[in-house]
Amino acid sequence: MFRHTSDLQFEAKPEKPDALYAMKLQELIGGAFGEMTVTMQYLFQGWNCRMEGKYKDLIMDIATEEIGHVEMIATMVGRLLEGAPDDVTAEAVKEPAVAAVVGGMNPQQAIVGGGGALPVDSAGTPWNGKYIVASGNLMADFRANVAAESQGRLQTARLYHMTDDPGVKAMLQFNLARDTVHQNEWLAAIEQLQEDGLEGPVAPDDLFEEENQAHARTHWHLSDGGEADQGPWASGQAPDGRHSFEYMADPAALGGKASAPAPRPHQYVTSRTDASGGPHVPGQARGVAGRIKDTLQ
Ligand SMILES: [Fe+2]
Ligand SMILES: [Fe+2]
């Protein structure tokens, strides 16, 4: 059961409307690393968590907080759009002052949202459920959570420098702080999973005997740049404690030619051979004879 309270988690009051900034702020609502993504990511991770206790409770607490962040930023967007013209004619846009206000406005915020926030990013792209990661493997998921909070904080920091509005800045200072806490919490949870013996540093913690062991420690030098051997990933102990890295300066291909199978006639693929292995005859799929041949195949 979820229960809603009408108070915002933190104040979301701009000093004055700014339709252009409202569109920019949409990134933090419906962007790939926005609040809708972390909300749904953590909710599904929590609902799918197969272990009652501290991990599930951590996930559900933060998930529920993120719903409140969607609410705060959506409220802020609505207030930034206050008074934004929704009936601007081409003539009005010629006025420099009006053009400045409407110039960067997302017209859908007026037409579809009636002056409110939308579940879209700053370019108007709809939020997408494929943005979220919820696999049931807490190590793999918590790493995705660190990545999401990192990208989210990065974008919040960039948006922080794009406004002088003290009300907007105050809200973003809160968001930056929560993104800091959440990054630290997921990093701590990753450590805790290992200390509790639930997961190892490599996910999933299995198949190390069966995987191709000759290739479980090598860096393949495959680009022009020649300095990748100068990091700790190229030699010495790997973080998993099982392997020591090795730098392959001149790796050779291990497989044969990457050739695709011969095409079927109705795929109309340019080829010298057909699926029977015989020479490809252009237009053979056409005509009665071709159709009979195809049917028999
Ligand atoms: Fe958040
Ligand atoms: Fe967060």
From TrEMBL:
<dbReference type="Pfam" id="PF05067">
    <property type="entry name" value="Mn_catalase"/>
</dbReference>
<feature type="region of interest" description="Disordered">
    <location>
        <begin position="222"/>
        <end position="297"/>
    </location>
</feature>
<comment type="similarity">
    <text>Belongs to the manganese catalase family.</text>
</comment>
<dbReference type="InterPro" id="IPR009078">
    <property type="entry name" value="Ferritin-like_SF"/>
</dbReference>
<dbReference type="InterPro" id="IPR007760">
    <property type="entry name" value="Mn_catalase"/>
</dbReference>
<protein>
    <submittedName>
        <fullName>Manganese catalase family protein</fullName>
    </submittedName>
</protein>
<dbReference type="InterPro" id="IPR039377">
    <property type="entry name" value="Mn_catalase_dom"/>
</dbReference>
<dbReference type="InterPro" id="IPR012347">
    <property type="entry name" value="Ferritin-like"/>
</dbReference>
